[in-house]
Design brief:
mainly alpha, globular, 45% helix
Amino acid sequence: MGKLKIIKEIKRNDTITRTIRLSGEIFDKISSLAEENDISFNNVINQIIEYGLQNLDESK
């Protein structure tokens, strides 16, 4: 599996608001990624989730 590459993306209008809980360590890492790439925290979260879903091993 290749590594995740954070990219700038155009904002999407079809969003759903949802609350999630993150550990402090993960929150800090994601915040740093967002700042380093000059994109929103939410954009980083969406890219991480999308990458994870595309690379999910669905074998049982």
